[in-house]
Design brief:
Strand content: 5-15%
Strand order of the largest sheet: 3-2-1-4-5-6
Shape: elongated
Order of helices and strands: HHHHEHEHEHEHEHEHHEHHEEEH
CATH class of the largest domain: Alpha Beta
Oligomer: single chain
Number of domains: 3
Number of strands: 10
CATH superfamily of the largest domain: NAD(P)-binding Rossmann-like Domain
CATH architecture of the largest domain: 3-Layer(aba) Sandwich
CATH topology of the largest domain: Rossmann fold
Length: 365
């Protein structure tokens, strides 16, 4: 009976002391952290501080030990490192250790869960931000695949100042895209919904450089079914895949090995000519560009010749070739040739003059 009364008094005294210590130490810290971080994370950190303070104070009152020893015992209990007890502990001390241990583990899992949720929310926010930027694109390029060839294409598009979005599903490649701050859509490019997310209905060109020819073939089929007038450029690693992709709807199919071999051969036979073309295409130190300009319906250039339009005088550009809708290409075209709807002109000139002539060839609204 006497023991029960003493135990009850001891617990009451301990509770009062804990509450006083808790209010003295915890309140200033809570105010400080709340001012700095008014978030769920701050609340969980405050909870961990609270457990440390309560555990330390409890050991001081129950076991009558120093503050440092009590703090050390609380720390190794929360860390669950399994060190030996600092002092010979009573039954009440063991009970208090159990309370601290389970409380600390509970708060730890809450913090871990909150951090995981924050990571998921950040990833979701990044996707939302990317989708919002993609919706603003118009007449842009869609680059499917960010392998070695895709990276080279992205570099060229960036240098040229073109708007483009990349579709990629590989985690490592996506990490690279994030580091390079490039606009991307995470997903399978062969899926219609992913292409729609990339704004294919507003896109100008789609470039398919996926891992294998089968994926590029499915990509071509999906893209052509979603937009008839989309220019589709695809890569084929074996020559047998080229006619299949063309039948599937690709406007141009390139075998990178054949293209590289042809370029090397031309470089060996006529290095000066190749270097000059590369200089123009890469702009270099010249303010020149070689661009393709399409004659659109209801344009002022329809049924007009280069002489009628006075191209050299008004626009100061050179028409080096004309590709007709039939596929016939006429290099160094006759000045009296009258442009038809759908003709593609290969023009050489400054960027400013080319843009001016391109607007002239657009349809009159």
């Amino acid at each position: 009976m006497l023991r029960d009364i003493c135990l009850t008094g001891m617990i009451s005294h301990m509770n009062s002391a804990i509450c006083l210590s808790f209010s003295i130490f915890y309140t200033p810290i809570s105010i400080l952290l709340s001012c700095m971080l008014n978030t769920r994370t701050a609340q969980l950190i405050l909870g961990m501080f609270g457990i440390i303070l309560l555990g330390t104070t409890g050991y001081v009152i129950i076991e009558h030990v120093g503050w440092f020893d009590a703090l050390y015992m609380t720390a190794i209990t929360l860390a669950t490192v399994g060190f030996q007890e600092v002092w010979r502990m009573s039954d009440m001390g063991h009970l208090w250790t159990i309370v601290i241990m389970f409380s600390g583990i509970g708060v730890f899992f809450l913090i871990a869960g909150h951090i995981a949720q924050q990571a998921v929310d950040f990833k979701r926010y990044r996707r939302f931000r990317m989708a919002k930027q993609v919706k603003k694109l118009n007449d842009h390029f869609i680059l499917c695949g960010y392998g070695r060839m895709g990276q080279a294409i992205a570099k060229e598009l960036t240098v040229a100042g073109r708007n483009f979005v990349i579709i990629e599903k590989d985690v490592e490649k996506i990490t690279m895209l994030i580091q390079e701050d490039l606009l991307y859509i995470e997903g399978d490019a062969t899926q219609d919904e992913v292409l729609i997310q990339a704004g294919i209905e507003r896109a100008k060109t789609l470039i398919g450089v996926l891992k294998d020819d089968q994926d590029n073939l499915f990509l071509t089929l999906s893209a052509r079914s979603l937009k008839n007038d989309l220019f589709i450029l695809s890569r084929a690693t074996v020559p047998e895949s080229i006619p299949k992709m063309e039948r599937a709807g690709a406007d141009k199919v390139i075998n990178p090995y054949e293209a590289a071999g042809t370029k090397l051969a031309r470089q060996a036979m006529a290095p000066g000519v190749v270097d000059f073309i590369e200089l123009i295409l890469n702009r270099g130190n010249l303010d020149l560009a070689l661009e393709t300009i399409t004659i659109q319906a209801d344009s002022m250039a329809v049924n007009k010749s280069m002489i009628d339009l006075e191209i050299r005088k008004k626009f100061n550009i050179i028409i080096t070739a004309v590709e007709q809708t039939s596929g016939v290409a006429d290099f160094n075209p006759d000045p009296n040739y009258e442009f038809k709807v759908g003709d593609k002109l290969i023009a050489l000139g400054t960027v400013e003059n080319l843009v001016s002539f391109e607007k002239f060839c657009e349809a009159i609204i």
